[in-house]
């Protein structure tokens, strides 16, 4: 399985959720609404979920094992870091003029 595309949409408002991400797997399958969350120990991903009748949230799609989750999380967080750097560079590009 290869992650062949990652699309990061940063969240503008303040809060723990930093971005919403879509990934494409093997150029054939897309998973939308993966969230990048800032937790106490740093950034992590939350897979798309739905609130169940008991009030708990249940993942709609998720990796079967922890190594796959870690691999997906690392790819997403790397792309998120690039998106943050690109945004900072574009914001700073016009501010040097006095």
Automatic annotation (TrEMBL):
Any matching Pfam family: SpoVG
Gene3D superfamilies: Stage V sporulation protein G
A GO biological-process term: division septum assembly
Keywords associated with the record: Cell cycle, Cell division, Septation
Similarity remark: Belongs to the SpoVG family.
HAMAP family: SpoVG (MF_00819)
Protein name: Putative septation protein SpoVG
Originating gene: spoVG
């Amino acid at each position: 399985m290869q992650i062949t595309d990652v699309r990061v949409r940063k969240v503008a408002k303040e809060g723990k959720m930093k971005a919403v991400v879509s990934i494409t797997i093997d150029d054939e399958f897309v998973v939308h609404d993966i969230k990048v969350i800032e937790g106490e120990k740093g950034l992590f991903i939350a897979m798309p979920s739905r609130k169940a009748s008991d009030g708990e949230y249940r993942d709609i799609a998720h990796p079967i094992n922890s190594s796959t989750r870690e691999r997906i999380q690392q790819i997403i967080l790397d792309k998120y870091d690039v998106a943050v750097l690109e945004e900072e560079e574009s914001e700073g590009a016009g501010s040097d003029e006095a």
